[in-house]
Sequence to fold (147 residues):
Amino acid sequence: MKLKYKIINEKDLYSGFFKLKKIEFIHQKHDGSWSSQVDREIFGGAHVSTLLPYDPQKNEIVLIQQFRAGVISRYDEDYLYEIVAGIIDANELAEDTAKRECLEETGCVVNKITPIQGYFPAPGSSESYYHLFLGEINSFEGERTSS
Fold:
């Protein structure tokens, strides 16, 4: 398969909690012609595993609450409700990460895991790639507290 883009230049701009680079490229348009040069800043991306914890006995989904700095200027609540997620460690399978993170974040063991899909959550600004799973669990009443 012939690539439909050409990278002209790539430069690292920042390396901290996130990595940021600038890419200069051209790409082939639908009509076959080539674009003018496009410059984009792109966040370095993590390889992430996500899991939607589902209790089939209760017919309920379990969500966790987390504080996220990225929504400070646009959200009035203290925490966001989220599904389970975590970065995949080196030499770890995405399924194993999902199970590990579910236990860490919810206190629930995944009894059965089903892949849903892989996706780029923000392809216009990030290299991150996510694996999404459905995880069957036995939930519990109350809140999980950190020890």
Observations:
- The mean pLDDT is 92.
- The longest helix spans residues 94-106.
- The radius of gyration is 19 Å.
